[in-house]
Design a protein that fits this description.
The complex is a heterotrimer of chains A (504), B (272) and C (107). With 504 residues, chain A is an all-alpha fold. Chain A contains 21 helices and two strands. Chain A has one domain. Chain A has a two-stranded antiparallel ribbon with strand order 1-2. In chain A, helix 4 runs antiparallel to helix 11, helix 13 packs antiparallel against helix 14 and helix 13 packs parallel to helix 17. Chain A is globular. Chain C has a single domain, classed as Orthogonal Bundle (Helix Hairpins). Chain C is 73% helix and 0% strand. The chains are: A mainly alpha (504), B mainly alpha (272), C mainly alpha (107).
Chain lengths: 504, 272, 107
């Protein structure tokens, strides 16, 4: 056996990487650029020059977006020679939709971070590289068609987050939040990778395409059941499904508000797509193994999350539980064996991301210095002292509650209608009851802003906005939530178009 | 660690080993042929497995973190020898080099940094309320493991040819030679023939002759890593870049910066 | 070196050992308070995973089990670097870590 014979397996050339994985590579280029800029130009590390890096970085994000759009309808795979091996990285149109959503989230978070970093005056040169590396992990996760790559990608998106969580100097418990998040995260990835090992023992391979095509050649169905259970536990931790949500309130409260917004949106979007491509697409033949556990997780999450959200007085904790509940609603789309429902998961995530990022933008701007959090008392009478923030927050809350004239309403509508068509009536009824209950605590925020009178006013409550970059994010989130809340047609068309031709 | 405590520990472990052995024995229906454990390799494996379990339990139960770390190092060595018994050569050496050589040294370094002798040892005692829950959870997991292994074994594997019957005992094939895919088994059982190890699916085209030389296995894995598994391999390099950046950020002494920030804040407050 | 059946370790045994070690690791995470010992228990869990991968690789007589275990090992190393850095940062900031805070299941 000579080495030459083995080398007939195609070597992946740089050009092929670029063709198949351009958005990810652009993000890596952005990381290198940021690191070089931070090292060579002292100006960008001063408060005056702090806008340079985020602005250049957002150009890179737009470039990555253009590259993702270019791949639309072309189904790139890596390795490129299909008959020589199953793809390890691949992108269909749904993947690209999720990649574009991740890039949108990254763009808004980058623009938001600028002001935040200046305000807390503790600028870390590695902040933007870590943020971009985390999104690189998410994009890789979206492209991944192999469980090893999925595992590595989940680690790539989590490891920077462990550190970003600990960067909040405003909040004394930030380091402990980081430690808690890290230990529980590592614990959960232990479960995840044990599940992956058992799936390897079931299928004899970890490639999605081979898993879907192959039979359970080894070791029988009990291995599959245990493997699926363990993998689901790992995922449930990352997207915060009850009972694996215990870390959420503490960590969300403890980390910098901008990072919290990023965690609540980006991580969920990436991992829900991973769930779709692993369970709904690859393991479609083994639905009976995972559908009921997923539905049980979802139902439990909606009930417990809502109950826990009601007594919260901190805005960040309230939003944390709200994100838990939303993960529960999203599982409704996961159990529907129809591609269009997965597209509506994407639609829902867009609505959710806009509303959550918008609210965390306001939180990061309103939070009193040295506190790192905003309580419901703090925002009393906000609609009068600062109508700009007050009305925007109202719209975001309406969207999160899923009331009409907001994108969140259509997100829920499409998802639930699909689920009813697929025969999941009990699940949808539960989700509807849960969302009616959830209106209560969103309304509580709105009532606090409009009805009460603010006792103590700080400077921040008067200022309309601290920066142009901030305004841009405001504009994006508000306009998106409102316009697609009235005319969701174009986005729905995009989702439908994504499924005109499906490879594999 | 007190003598009585260690005595209790050891006797408990001995009892546990006995119970595990009896469970296995019962699952095999008390027929010796079904539990052919006592070849030299398997005897060695059994001994190492018991040692690995004992060292793992010691890691969890010992009060002093340094002792815990040393118990874990011992565990890694036992596992490395088990890997060697399974002919997984490269991983056996990586296990020693990376885990025992690099990772545990880091652990010990951090422990020595912060747990000086004489200082009240923080966090040594277990959390009482959770002990019961934790043990119950672990027992549930073990029960699940038993079900997985024995249930999984009761299903007739598809690659067995029609004439072959899986033995009636629930331990049927996972605990016997039948667990080797038939193809490989035939080859390996034929005397005088070179044992060529067949691979599945895309690996099938390139049989890897593991037996040829130990270096051959390392070499074969290296070639695979740079061809078939290039994508995860490259992504691992990004992961390590992340680890470097993150460790630099966390390792930097930010205390001075935070104090400066506090001072400017206080200055602002008094200035106003 | 020949693969005679006597030197073949049936994967059931190895897998059983892997799951036992994994369960011990889980208990360690849930029961101990010291963050470093919790972290070591997680390392034990990852080792159990490696053992499971190798058991299946041994069963199938393929190299991919070792390759996957190699990736798990690399990920574990990266995790250790970050985890110990986080623990160091906390210890340094406040000299002693507030142990009850590290109680992971506290609501």
């Amino acid at each position: 056996m000579t080495a030459e014979a083995v080398l007939t397996v195609p070597v992946v050339h740089l050009r092929e990487w670029w063709v198949a994985f351009a958005p990810g590579i652009v993000l890596l280029l952005a990381v290198i650029t940021q690191l070089v800029l931070e090292l060579t130009l002292p100006y960008v590390r001063t408060n005056r020059g702090a806008w340079v890096v985020p602005l250049i970085s957002s150009l890179f994000v737009l470039w990555a977006g253009v590259e993702a759009v270019k791949q639309w309808g072309r189904y790139p795979t890596l390795p490129v020679v299909p008959e020589r091996g199953s793809p390890v990285l691949a992108a269909d149109n749904l993947t690209l939709l999720f990649v574009l959503l991740l890039l949108l989230i990254l763009l808004m978070v980058t623009l938001m971070s600028h002001v935040f970093n200046v305000r807390i005056r503790l600028y870390e040169a590695e902040y933007y590289p870590l943020l971009f590396l985390s999104v690189f992990g998410m994009v890789t996760l979206a492209y991944s068609r192999d469980l090893v790559v999925t595992f590595i990608a989940i680690e790539m998106l989590s490891l920077p987050l462990y550190v970003l969580v600990g960067l909040n100097v405003d909040y004394l418990k930030s380091g402990e939040a980081a430690l808690k998040y890290f230990l529980l995260g590592a614990f959960a990835s232990g479960f995840l990778v044990m599940g992956i090992a058992l799936l390897y023992g079931t299928f004899g391979t970890l490639n999605y395409q081979e898993m879907a095509a192959g039979t359970m050649t080894l070791n029988g169905p009990a291995f599959l059941m245990a493997g699926v259970a363990l993998v689901l536990m790992g995922f449930a931790f990352k997207i915060a499904l009850v009972p694996f949500h215990v870390w959420v309130p503490d960590v969300y409260q403890g980390s910098p508000s901008v990072v919290t917004g990023f965690m609540a949106t980006g991580v969920k979007a990436a991992l829900f797509y991973a769930l779709i491509s692993l369970f709904a697409q690859t393991m479609a033949d083994y639905r009976s193994y995972w559908v009921l556990p997923v539905a049980a997780f979802g139902a439990l999450t909606m009930v417990v999350g809502n109950l826990m959200a009601i007594p919260q007085t901190s805005l960040k904790r309230l939003l944390a539980y709200s994100s838990v509940v939303h993960a529960g609603y999203l599982t409704v789309g996961l159990v529907v064996p129809d591609r269009i429902a997965w597209g509506y998961i994407w639609f829902y995530l867009v609505a959710y991301a806009l509303a959550v990022l918008g609210s965390f933008l306001i939180v990061s701007y309103l939070e009193p210095e040295g506190k790192g959090d905003v309580s419901l008392d703090d925002i009393r009478g906000l609609a009068r002292t600062n109508p700009y923030a007050g009305y925007a927050m109202t719209i975001f809350m309406v969207s999160l509650a899923g009331l009409p004239i907001s994108m969140g309403f259509f997100g829920k509508l499409f998802l639930f209608v699909e689920a009813v068509h697929a025969g999941w009536t009990w699940f949808v009824v539960l989700a509807l009851v849960a969302s009616v209950f959830s209106v209560y605590y969103y309304l509580k925020v709105i009532v606090a802003m409009f009805m009460d009178v603010k006792l103590v006013e700080t400077e921040a409550y008067r200022k309309p906005s601290p920066s142009r970059l901030y305004d841009l994010v405001y504009l994006l989130t508000l306009v998106g939530t409102l316009i697609f809340g009235v005319v969701p047609g174009p986005v729905v068309e995009l989702v439908r178009e994504a499924f005109i031709r499906i490879p594999l | 660690m007190g003598a009585d405590r260690s005595l209790k520990l050891l006797s408990g472990l001995g009892g546990l080993a006995l119970v595990a052995y009896l469970v296995l024995w019962a699952a095999a229906g008390f027929v010796p042929e079904r539990l052919p454990f006592f070849t030299p390799v398997r005897g060695l494996f059994g001994l190492l497995a018991i040692l690995a379990v004992i060292s793992a339990l010691a890691m969890v139960m010992l009060r002093n973190p340094v002792h815990s770390a040393l118990a874990l190092v011992a565990n890694f060595f036992f596992l490395a020898i088990i890997y060697l018994l399974m002919q997984q050569v490269l991983l056996a050496f990586l296990q020693v080099l990376v885990y025992a050589g690099a990772i545990m040294v880091l652990f010990l370094f951090v422990i020595m940094f912060f747990f000086q002798p004489g200082r009240p040892d923080l966090g040594s005692s277990p959390i009482r309320q959770q002990t019961l829950g934790g043990v119950l959870f672990a027992l549930a997991m073990l029960a699940m493991a038993m079900v997985v292994i024995f249930q999984g074994a009761s299903r007739r594997p598809q690659w067995l040819s029609a004439g072959e019957e899986v033995r009636s005992s629930p331990v049927a094939y996972l605990f016997s030679e039948a667990a080797v895919p038939r193809k490989v088994q035939e080859i390996s059982l034929t005397p005088g023939r070179k044992p060529e190890l067949q691979a599945t699916r895309q690996e099938e085209e390139q049989p890897v002759n593991v037996a040829k030389a130990f270096g051959g296995q390392v070499r074969a894995i290296g070639i695979r890593l740079y061809t078939q598994y290039l994508v995860p391999f490259e992504l691992t390099s990004v992961l390590i870049l992340i680890a470097i950046i993150a460790a630099v950020v966390m390792g930097r002494d930010r205390a001075k910066k935070i104090m400066e920030l506090e001072r400017t804040r206080q200055g602002e407050v008094s200035g106003e | 070196m020949t693969i005679d059946p006597a030197s073949f370790i049936p994967p059931g045994y190895t897998l059983l050992l892997a799951l036992v070690l994994f369960a011990i690791g889980v208990v360690g995470v849930l029961v101990r308070r010291n963050p470093i010992v919790i972290f070591m228990s997680i390392e034990l869990m990852l080792n159990a995973v490696n053992l499971a991968f190798l058991a299946f690789g041994h069963q199938l007589m393929v190299l991919s089990g070792q390759i996957y275990a190699f990736f798990v090992l690399a990920v574990a190393a990266a995790e250790v670097a970050i985890g110990l850095a986080i623990i160091m940062a906390i210890f340094r900031r406040r000299e002693e870590v507030d142990v009850d805070r590290v109680n992971l299941l506290r609501w």
